[in-house]
């Protein structure tokens, strides 16, 4: 049983906790594969902390009208008892890259254990468990994400660059 399916069955998934931000390319791909009009919505992510190491990501995703996957009482709109209902090649790029840490410069490696989203195992073994050992594929998704972010941000954002994590209270 794949890790995402195992986590979904135990209700311990990143899909239940995380806000999944979308590029316009994600919205188009998902809309073609899963033609349900209300899978996304705009959310105010402008209170999230800027990441000065990745200003493009911040500018594209931290703003008053950030497109995100709609949430249900159970978490992500696409979460089922068997994990994500979307085929891997259709999933939002952020989901395909998770649990990798990255910035515009490139992939930085798997997230650290105890991050609050991905249950153990975490670290290098999680990549094998998630069938993410193909570094060329990961780099291609990373490249695609930043190409789409550049295309999305070309129109500009009212809020300027901010990113990532909710600000500490």
Helix/strand order, N-terminal first: HHHEHEEEEEHEEHH
**Radius of gyration, Cα only, in angstroms?**
15 Å
What would you call the structural class?
Answer: alpha+beta
Determine the N-to-C terminus distance: 39 Å
Helix content: 25-40%
State mean pLDDT (0 to 100 scale): 77
Report strand %.
5-15%
Enumerate the spans where pLDDT stays under 50 for 5 or more consecutive residues: 155-169
Query: Main sheet?
Result: 2 strands, antiparallel
Would you kindly provide a written description of the structure presented here, covering whatever features stand out?
- With 169 residues, this protein is α+β, with helices and mostly antiparallel strands.
- 35% of the residues lie in helices and 15% in strands.
- It has one domain (3-153).
- The chain has helices at residues 3-10, 14-17, 24-33, 55-61, 93-97, 124-129, 135-153, and strands spanning 40-43, 66-69, 71-72, 75-76, 79-80, 83-84, 100-103, 106-110.
- The termini are far apart.
- The model is unreliable at 155-169 (pLDDT under 50).
How do you describe this structure in short?
With 169 residues, the protein is α+β, with helices and mostly antiparallel strands. It contains seven helices and eight strands, in the order H-H-H-E-H-E-E-E-E-E-H-E-E-H-H. It has one domain.
